[in-house]
Amino acid sequence: MIEIVNESGAEADELALEDVAHYVLGQLGIHPLAELSVLLIDEDAMSELHEKWMDEPGPTDVLSFPMDELRPPGLSGATASASVGHATGEERAAAPDLLGDVVLCPAVAAAQAQQAGHSAQAELELLCVHGILHLLGYDHADAEEEAEMFGLQGELLRAWRADRAAGQADSGDSADGAVGAQEGQEGPG
Predict the structure, then answer these.
(1) Any domain includes 142
(2) Residue 7 within any structural domain of the chain
(3) What is the CATH number of the domain that holds 130?
(4) pLDDT one-digit tens code per residue, 83-133
(5) Residue 121 to residue 188: CA distance in whole angstroms
(6) Alpha-carbon distance 57 to 101, whole Å?
(7) Residue 112 and residue 128: Cα distance in Å, rounded?
(8) Is residue 187 in some structural domain?
(9) Residue 88 structural domain
(10) How far apart are CA 94 and CA 135, in angstroms?
(11) Is residue 158 part of a domain?
């Protein structure tokens, strides 16, 4: 179960955030009933969390608060690789877990989006994927970890956007919020 709560006062496509979260968890073989919360908050609230938990001043774009030590199937450590879309039925059938919380700040995301040349929604989607990967044990503390995490992040975003665009094309809609192929390889802050 994925819960999206927008307390930020900013507009966001919450259904798209829920959809990308479901897609990422499914591609990484996480049980479909695993619990994830995505919270969108304003800069003041994010500043408080950032200072309390990271001992750093000011707001940030995304924070992740894992609840269970959960790894995607085949991921034995923070630098182990996981292949998108290759989870087995047995792996998916594992008991659901409480993943944790991903906290996003749309105001910071909007500023980053402007610098990156894409929409604020596209940045929120990127940050949602980034936060979920942190919940699952991925990190970017060194160059090798960063390359792995951002590569997977970009791969997941591109695949989700392609699937979404294909689904919208089938229904006659256009793909809102689509960004260039390079987007998604860049990382937060």
Answers:
(1) yes
(2) yes
(3) 3.40.390.30
(4) 344 444 444 445 567 899 999 999 999 999 999 999 999 999 999 999 999
(5) 14
(6) 21
(7) 14
(8) no
(9) 2-171
(10) 17
(11) yes
Instruction: List phi, psi (to 5°) of 21.
Output: -65, -45
pTM: 0.78
Can you tell me the distance from the alpha carbon of 189 to that of 177, in angstroms, rounded to the nearest whole number?
A: 21
Task: Count up the domains in the chain and report the number.
Answer: 1
CA distance 92 to 32: 7
**What DSSP assignment string belongs to the chain?**
-EEEEE-SSS---HHHHHHHHHHHHHHTT--TT-EEEEEE--HHHHHHHHHHHH---S--SEEEEESS----TT--STT----TT---HHHHTSPP-EEEEEEE-HHHHHHHHHHHTS-HHHHHHHHHHHHHHHHTT---SSHHHHHHHHHHHHHHHHHHHHHHHHHHHHHT---TT---TTTTSS---
- Residues 147, 149: Cα–Cα separation, whole Å: 6
Tens digit of each residue's pLDDT, the chain (189 residues): 999 999 999 999 999 999 999 999 999 999 888 999 999 999 999 999 999 999 999 999 999 999 865 445 454 443 333 334 444 444 444 556 789 999 999 999 999 999 999 999 999 999 999 999 999 999 999 999 999 999 999 999 999 999 999 987 776 654 444 333 334 444 555
**Structure token pair of residue 58:** 């000011």
